[in-house]
Amino acid sequence: MVNISYYKKLLDTKALSCTELTKAFLDSAEKENPSLNAYISITKEEALKTAAEVDEKIARGESLQPLEGIPVIIKDNICTKGIRTTCASKMLENYVPFYDATVWEHIKAQNSVLIGKGNMDEFAMGSTSETSYFGIVKNPHNPEYVAGGSSGGVAAAVAGKLAAYGIGTDTGGSIRQPASFCGIYGLKPTYGSVSRYGIVAYASSFDQAGVLASCAEDTALVFDVISKYDERDMRSVGFKKSTYESLSGSVKGLKIGIATEDLMASDEFVNSAVENTINVFKSMGAEVEEIKIPFIKECLPVYYILACAEASSNLGRFDGIRYGYHVEDYEDLNDMISRTRSEGFGDEVKRRIILGTYVLSSGYFDAYYKKAQRLRESIIKEIDKIFKSCDIVLAPTVPVAPLKAGANLSPVDLYRTDICTCAANIVGLPSISVPAGFTDDNMPVGIQLIGGRFKEDVILNAAYAFEKETGGEYIKLSEMGCGV
Ligand code: GLN
After folding, report:
1. Which of 120, 128, 171, 410 most suits a substitution to test ligand 1, by most atoms within 8 Å of the C-beta?
2. 0.90 exceeded by pTM
3. Which pLDDT tens digit goes with each residue over 325-335?
4. The CATH number, out of the four listed (3.40.50.2000, 3.40.190.150, 3.30.930.10, 3.90.1300.10), of the domain defined by the range 4-297+373-480
């Protein structure tokens, strides 16, 4: 399998120097990016500098760290000191941070080679990466389809082998959904596992950084590197053990809950992927039981009310004064701020700021914001209870198969596609999207394994076991009795 261990072996056995490996990735990225648009910036100079350092280390006979010399893509809402960080917005088109996000500090300390910054939905708001100011990201399986969003560029680069792995962020599904659309693994960790410091905030009580990779083993390896306590994030907890070392591949006796009634999708390929995965887990000795997910219908409105409210507050800082875009000609301060924000933000971002401001305004605060907060508390209590009797909840990642580019769904129809992912963010639970099959159009379909709080080791091991059992091969879902 072509994964991190494979590239690591090439370096360890000196079959390839790190500079050669880096050049190969840079060449592919430069060649493919004009069509895929996975990268907003390609960081050639930075990449070759790191590669040269790794080569010197190899020449000195020193052993390499787990991610040393491995090509990586970082989503463009994660601050990289001295490297443009745009959030795919005109507002930050020329913003160069003067500090590193903690998650990038960890990757950088490994001497992982940064190939570039990943395209995304503007300020991570979206599900197709079509709201990017830098243009839409194409799916490497078929350019007529979107790569998903908001971490679409990272998912497309990893699936298209333009980077070995990537770091994305997930507020309501933005790691898992594009991972599912692109046929790779995407882990959203427990809220608090990975530091949010230096990540441009969208909805702070939901935001989590995580991993996009080509197999479960790589996902665990990278998660172990980035999940450290950080005093600069007041909600940081970190993760105490190595998930990589706890990959046993055994799921005997593992209790898996499925919510057929609450979470089955309307798309038959997606349902077939779920059924097939259940059968594989059963054949490996896992115990599957039907469960109910309380308040599942409330999750979507709760997520969108609270996420928009938090976004409207977080994005208040883009006022044309401190940094970022600002208009040159204006009449007075008010005119400058309002024109800067009107010109600097795209439509979807503006829609959410308006929605968020509305639910926070006096007269509506109690009816929307407060009610959603109270519901969130109930959802957290009830969903946490599920994990007293289940180790994992298995569900679709997205209720629909990958979407065609330019499908032009209404905003609400697009929001609806987050129904399976946003519950994990509301509660703060870890969840991984795992490739589980292909549609008749050869587009990937993922399923999701949600775990209890700080049970990343459990879901990663289950993903690993499933991958081993199926040989990591894509299953044509119509051959499982679907879609024909
Ligand atoms: N699609 C969801 C939204 O638009 C999730 C985005 C995300 O996780 N960043 O809010």
Report:
1. 171
2. yes
3. 999 999 999 99
4. 3.90.1300.10
